[in-house]
Structure formats: structure tokens, C-alpha cells
Fold these 2 entries.
Entry 1:
Amino acid sequence: MAADQHASSPPVEQNIIEHPTTTGLDNRKMAMWAFLGSDTMFFGSLIAAYLVSHGRAANPPYPAQLFDIPFTSVSAFVLLMSSVAMVLGLAGIQNGDLRRFRIWIVTTCLLGLVFLGGQVYEFTEFYHEGLSLSTNLFGSAFYTLTGFHGAHVTLGVVWLFSLVIASFRQPLVTKEKALNVEIAGLYWHFVDIVWIIIFAVVYLIEV
Amino acid sequence: MVVDTDQQHHTQEEEHHHPSSREYANIAAILSAITAVEVALYFITGVSHATLVVMLMALMVVKFVYVVAYYMHLKYDHPYFTLIFAGGLFVSISIVLALGALFGIYSGGGEDIIRELPGE
């Protein structure tokens, strides 16, 4: 009897009913865009705090003494290229090409790790030059802004790695469920555009 | 039972029109070129600070728009997503402009509002 019931009931996957929404748009994607909109305000506040404190540090070291623009330019380029790898990975899963998805998402993760390694190196160098979180206004604002960005990159790397692992273990990452990858991709690109702003405003312009 | 409305069909068709791999690569080349120009501008001497700021900000905005429009697919997605993100962006820019004006970062003033004392 129990065996008959089990045989007649459809698989779990088929039991999942996707309810229509009033907008016709997926709630998860809408939620991610809402989160990104709010995170924009968060980073806007940190950038504003950096600009307000800029040039008002009473004690050295100052930005001009520390910034290594060629090094940071390479980091910015690496993060930019990780966005390209991300969209190619998404295109892979949307076309049902799991191998292509894995290759490009792992590439994205590796580029993200290279960026993080560069940030750790930069922070270490700055610390040895005498800039800590409490040295001056510049140190507090700079480490807070770039540190929170680094934390976002770290979360993104963990998220993307988990998707790659999930693609081996369970049917969470398939062509039909490409939205799971697209949402992670939105987060990753957001991290990239935040760095586009930080690179220009904090490093290059030096208001 | 999976319910599909015409609106959802329309939305899904819109969402599935994404750039090709070649287009993604072309955009990557444009973004790389802009980054190279940004760095070159930093090292070019003889350009006034005001001009440098305007040019770097313009290039930054172009890169931002390219990533958001093509890599985040806002150009092809439903306008609601653009609206939600633009709302947050508007507030964010307002915060930067308002705090900048309050603390005098455009005029170089504001020392009486925020000043770090030596040895603090």
C-alpha cells in the first residue's frame, strides 16, 4: 500500500509549484535588487564618510604617501575580469553547459581570491608604514570602506564556490534553475561596480 | 499545477534575451580600455585637478553603466528592477552630495565642523 502510494506520487521536484506574482517577476530576483539598492546606500554612506574625513588627518601617514596606483590598478583589472568570467559562467548554465559553468565560475572565484590577496597585501603594507584603524581619520575611513568591500568579495567567493559544489551534489544548479546563478551573479557584479567607484574616488581622484 | 500568465511569458522572453559571449568580450575590452585611460590620466601631469576629477568621474560613470546595463542585464530586464536599484542609487548619491556640502568638501571648508587634533 505504502509502496503504491510512493509509486503514484510525483517526484519532489514536480511537486514544487511556482506561484505567479502580481508583477510577473521572480520574488527572489526582486529581493536581490532591493538588497543591492539598500547596499548602495550603505556604501554611499561609507564613501561620503571617507570624503568628509579626507585631507583632515592631523597625523601621517597620508594617502599620497601610501597608495601604490599601479598595484591597485592591477587589482581593479582583476576584479573587472572576474565579472566577465561571471557572465560567461551564467551563459554556460543558461545553455545547459554544466562544464562551461564550472570552469568560468571557478575562474571567477580564483580572480576574486587574487583580488582579496592583493587587498591583504595592501593592508599589511599600509600597517607596516604606520597606518592602523586608529592612527588617523584617513586610516579609520579607508580601512572601514575597503574592509567592508573586501568582506563583500569574500562572501561572494564563498557563495560562488558553494554553487560549484552544489552543481556536483544536487540538482540545485541546472539550466532550469539558472536563476540561482543569476542572483549570485548580480551580487558579484555589484561588488565590482562598488570597486569601480572606490578605485576612482578613493585612489585616483584623491579629492 | 503551474500557473503561467501572459505577463509572465512576456517577462521571461525579455529576461532570456542576453548578450552573446562575443558581446560580453567586447564589453570587457571596452571596460579594460577605460580603466587604462583612467590610470593614464592619473599619471599625466599638466592637467588641472578639476579637469582630472571631471574626466575620471565621467569614465567611472561609463564603466558603472556598462556593467549594470550589460553584465547585470538591466538593459534587457524588466524596468521594475531598474527602478528599485535607481531608488537606492539616488538616495546614495544624495547622501554623498549632502554630507559633502555640509562638511564643505567642495569649497575646502568645514574645518570648524570636523577637525582631527594632532596626537588624537
Entry 2:
Amino acid sequence: MEDKALISAQRVFQTVCKALDELGFRYEKDEENFTTKVLYTAENIPCNFALFLGKNWEFIEIVEFLPFTCEVGKFIDLAFAVSATNSTLADGSFWLDITDGTSAFKLTSVYQDSLISTDLIKYMIEITLYTVDKYCEKLYNLTTNVITLQEYMDFLENS
Amino acid sequence: MSSKILKDYEVISNYIVEIIKAQDWTYDYDEDNECIYIEVAASSNEINIPLVMQVDKERDFFTVLSALPIPIEEDKQDEMAIAVNIINNILVFGSFDYNYLEGAISYRFTSSFRKSLISKSAYEFMIGIVLMSIETYLENLTKLAFGEMTIEEFNAFVQG
């Protein structure tokens, strides 16, 4: 990183950590790579998300992997479900990794030459947790044949 | 002489218009929905890329939507759903969204400005990255939709 970008990244990373502190999260931080990892539980299920800064471009990204893996036979259904879900979201997106069946949600904000508030970081965290919480169980149920794709789409339409 | 202190979303809207004008793009402003509509000629093919930009003052984010002109027949739905996931897996900014019930594929980018001072250069970067993201994948998504490319070939292109 150039000096200017490095100073900017250090400042934004401090803001990220301050936001996590204010929200009461315990986290691991890697100050050299501008990365934080947060472990938390939702309805007794261990979950985690990572907040990190881009290396080549000046952006903040939050990624939360969903706590299940999809079998190959359900790839098409899950691919339909997450891409249709994305079309209803205002911010952030899910994806299915067809190489290993994992799924995740991510959201980014650009901070080039900018002053980022803790409120913006809190927004990124809160919208990620809210969105994952809203869709995760239904997506899991889809991958385990508890609900059909049509039932998922009905849920999506009514939510 | 009085001067008006602009609200953050007004400053950002001005930035967006300045950026569009600097590129000599023609645009329409929809006052009711507070959206800016533009069409940008893609450099890689003859298709115009339609963009709808909005500074959402209720939710404090800047968003760009592009309804991509790709017709998707029923027998290509599975491949298109897989294709957008392959892209979204590696895409840093925005996402390609596909609702098979509506048969529509779109690109969507959002970046928050909540209680922050986001620079004009950041918005120039965002608009540039939106166009780059769409241009990178539009041609091959279209080929996939028309059966001119297999999903394996598409995957190899994305992983490229």
C-alpha cells in the first residue's frame, strides 16, 4: 500500500474496531492485514463473520458464511434461491460456491478519500446479521428437502 | 447573500451529475423517484448498458441498478442461476441478481454513506467499477443464454 492508502486504511480499521467494541462483539484482529473475525451465536448455532479492508482498492467488506454445506444434488435449487433472494435485497448479496457447496453473504462500502463513521460500519454489521438471520434457516431447509424451491419462492414473495 | 448548506444526499447527487456530465453521457432525471437514468455504450459489443442510479436519502446509500438485456429461455434457467453464483463468488463489488420467475437478470451495486463523508473520487470509482463489472460479464452471459457457450466454458472464463 502507498503511504496515503496505508494511513487511510489504518484510520478506517480503527473505526471498524470501535464499531465492533460499541456493539459489544468479541473479536480477533489482524492489524497488518486489516482483518477482524467475529464469533457469535444465533439461537445456539455458532456463527462468524469477518470484516476486512480491500488490498488493491479502498473498500470495507463484511462476509458471513452460512453454517451449512449444500450437497451437489441441491446446487441448482440453492442457486435459484440465492439469486432470486438477491433480486429482492437493497444491499448485499448471497452466493453459492459450486466448488464446495458453501454459501455466504457479503456487503461492501467504498471509502476512497473519505471519512467513514462508526455508524456506517454498524449498519454493515447489522444489515448482514439481519439478512443472514432472515434467510439462513429457509435456505438450509431447502438444501435438506424440508421445503421445496416453490415453497422458498412463496416465502420470498411474502417476506 | 445567503448560502444554502446542502444535505449529504444533495452533495452526493451533485457529485453523480458532475461525474455523468464529465463523461458526456446523456441522462434523464426522474423527480418523482429521484432516480437518474443513463445508457452507456458497452465497449466490448454493440449493446447499450442501462443504468438507474439513486441516492437513497431514507436509507443513506447510493445504488446502481442495471436490468441487463439478456433474454433467458426456460431451458437456460439452470445454467443462468449457476452462472450468476459463479460470478458473485468472485465479484468484489455488487452482484448479478437473477429471478427465474421473472426471467430477468440484473446487476446491482450499493454503497452506504451513513453519517460519513464520501468523496467525489469514491463515487467516480464506484461508477467505473459498476461499468467494468457489467462489461466483463455481459457478453459471455449473453452467449450462455443463446447456447453459444457452455456453463463449463463460462466457469473457465470467470476463473480465467
